[in-house]
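This entry is passed on directly below:
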Amino acid sequence: MIAVIDYDAGNLKSVEKALVSIDEQVVVSRNHEEILYADKVILPGVGAFGDAMGKLKEYGLVDTIHEVVDRQKPFLGICLGLQLLFERSDESDGVSGLGILPGEILRIPDAPGIKIPHIGWNSLDIAPDARLFTGLTANPYVYFVHSYYLKAADESIVAATTEYGGTLIHASVQKDNIYACQFHPEKSGSVGLQILKNFAAL
């Protein structure tokens, strides 16, 4: 069973629907015991970094997430869920993230002809042995919606990158039982469903 953490984030239903479509048993929950009982856990997210951290604290989910990670359960952060795993974000000065992985979230720089937020399909440059991308062709296209991007402190955890307006974006990370994507697999067609299948098969 896969638990999708409910902290009033925007894309819970689309993540749940995508998982159901690949025949996974899903529970959407903010209950500590229910989340810890699951085999795998997903932290989705659309919204502002500071507001999201506030909700995670309000619902007592910060300790739950740390316990899931400590128990070595496969954990997947999606979009804002990726950003929250890191230490800080330009979007919300003075707000600490979960700090599970080292790095920071930066605003995509303005550049001629570049629209922010970045909305649309970009191809990925995938690192060797990136487990979420097993079975995919080289440079698959996935769907992004974001104004801020990850700069990981430890580049060895970067599982995929993309480029937008000349900025190199760390689009996915993998470390031990922790996986995360800046893009939306649940909105990335057959490629995204394969990524979710790969996570479910871990």
In short: Residues 2-91+100-200 form a domain with the Rossmann fold fold (CATH 3.40.50.880). The helical segments are 12-21, 32-37, 49-58, 61-70, 80-84, 189-200.
